[in-house]
């Protein structure tokens, strides 16, 4: 879809985010849906995504509000939705609710939040709603491209500064440090601790001298015990419990 004539794209700063390994990328171009109520910003995203290396990105649709994004996602089944949180003058629950509905209807569709909001509570709410990634609208073009490729591959991606925001939220809401999460085995806690540092399944397996299959089994068990469905949500729980870094 060609960019709109005369539109001015978003400005971008410097820096790269944190990728948490996941599954495998889609075959062929990444099918993406843009959800943002500013045509100029969507035009800027189109320009950035046009430079994504092979297999590239195919913009299959655009929406200016949460309800429209939900409807288009159901119709088009994109690999990825780039989601703003505040659209059409509404509060930020518009994008959060849309994220929740899209991921519930199609778990294979990754949602990458691209928002001006940098408050820890908003980031956590978006990830809890099912978003796999979160970058700020001031992010560098390279960071956005990295986030798009990571989230479309089933990975989690936290933009520059976003992980620090989650740590800030955990510090503010945790009255005293906790050494772990009740109910998790020692090995599950080890896996969760390494997961919170951004390591993928293979790296965790090498660190703990386990097979990747065993690590995946531990992840499935700890996800069930924590009541989470994806890695970003598990990372939030790990940081709240003080399970950060290696022993």
- Principal-axes shape call: globular
Strand content: 5-15%
**Cα separation of the termini:** 50 Å
The overall strand count is: 7
Order of helices and strands: EEHEHEHEHEHEHHHHH
Q: Enumerate how many helices there are, as a single number.
A: 10
Unreliable stretches, pLDDT < 50, 5 or more residues? 1-15, 173-178
Radius of gyration of CA atoms, rounded to a whole number: 18 Å
Instruction: Assign the structural class, choosing from mainly alpha, mainly beta, alpha/beta, alpha+beta, or little secondary structure.
Output: alpha/beta
As laid out across the biggest beta sheet, the strand order is 1-7-6-5-4-2-3
Query: Mind summarizing the main beta sheet?
Result: 7 strands, mixed
Overall pLDDT metric: 81
Helix % is: 40-55%
Protein name: Response regulator transcription factor
Domain HTH luxR-type: 177-242
Keywords: DNA-binding, Phosphoprotein, Transcription, Transcription regulation
Modified residues (4-aspartylphosphate): 84
What would your notes on this structure say?
- It comes from Yinghuangia aomiensis.
- This is Response regulator transcription factor.
- Mean pLDDT is 81; it is low at 1-15 and 173-178.
- Helix 2 runs parallel beside helix 3 (93-105).
- The protein has helices at residues 39-49, 66-76, 93-105, 120-128, 141-152, 162-173, 186-195, 201-208, 212-226, 231-240; strands at residues 18-20, 30-35, 57-63, 80-83, 110-115, 133-136, 156-158.
- It is of the alpha/beta class and 247 residues long.
- It is globular.
- The protein has a 7-stranded mixed sheet, sandwiched between helices.
- Helices cover 45% and strands 13% of the residues.
């Amino acid at each position: 879809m060609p960019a709109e004539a005369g539109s001015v794209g978003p400005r971008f700063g410097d820096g790269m985010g944190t990728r948490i390994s996941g599954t495998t990328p889609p075959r062929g171009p990444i099918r993406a849906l843009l959800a943002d109520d500013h045509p100029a910003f969507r035009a800027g995203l189109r320009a950035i995504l046009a430079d994504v290396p092979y297999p590239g990105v195919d913009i299959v649709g655009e929406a200016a509000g949460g309800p429209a994004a939900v409807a288009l996602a159901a119709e088009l089944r994109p690999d990825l939705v780039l989601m703003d949180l505040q659209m059409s003058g509404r509060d930020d629950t518009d994008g959060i609710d849309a994220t929740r509905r899209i991921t519930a209807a199609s778990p294979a569709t990754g949602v990458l939040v691209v928002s001006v909001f940098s408050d820890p509570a908003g980031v956590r709410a978006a990830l809890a709603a099912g978003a796999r990634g979160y970058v700020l609208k001031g992010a560098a073009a390279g960071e956005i491209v990295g986030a798009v490729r990571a989230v479309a591959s089933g990975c989690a991606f936290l933009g520059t500064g976003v992980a620090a925001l989650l740590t800030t939220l955990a510090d503010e809401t945790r009255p005293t440090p906790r050494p772990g999460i009740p109910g998790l085995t020692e090995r599950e806690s080890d896996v969760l601790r390494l997961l919170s540092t951004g390591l993928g399944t293979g790296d965790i397996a090498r660190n703990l001298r386990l097979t990747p299959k065993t690590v995946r089994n531990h992840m499935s068990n700890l996800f069930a015990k924590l009541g989470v469905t994806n890695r970003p949500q598990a990372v939030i729980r790990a940081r709240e419990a003080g399970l950060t870094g290696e022993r």
